[in-house]
Amino acid sequence: MELVKAEFCTGCGACVKACPKSAIHYVTDKEGFPVPEIRTDKCINCGICTQVCPAVSKPETHEIRQAYAAQMLDRETLKESTSGGLFTVFAREIFHRGGVVYGCVWDDEYNAVVRKAENEDEIKSMRGSKYVWSYAADCFPEVKQLLNEGRIVMFTGLPCQVAGLKNYLRKDYDNLYLVDFFCGGAPSPYAFHEYLKTITTDIPLDQLDFKLRDKSKYGVGVNISYNSPSGRVHQSYVRNPYFFSYHTKVFHRRCCYHCQYRYEQRAEDITIGDYWGVAKYHNEFDVRAGVSALLINSEKSAELLESVRKNLQLSPTRLQDIAEYNNLTLEDEKREFPLSPFRDAFFETLRTKGWTAAERKYLYNKIRLKLWLKTKIPTKYRELIKKTIKRN
Ligand SMILES: Cc1cc2nc3c(=O)[nH]c(=O)nc-3n(C[C@H](O)[C@H](O)[C@H](O)COP(=O)(O)OP(=O)(O)OC[C@H]3O[C@@H](n4cnc5c(N)ncnc54)[C@H](O)[C@@H]3O)c2cc1C
Question: With a 6 A CB cut-off, is 82 part of the ligand 1 pocket?
Answer without folding.
Answer: yes
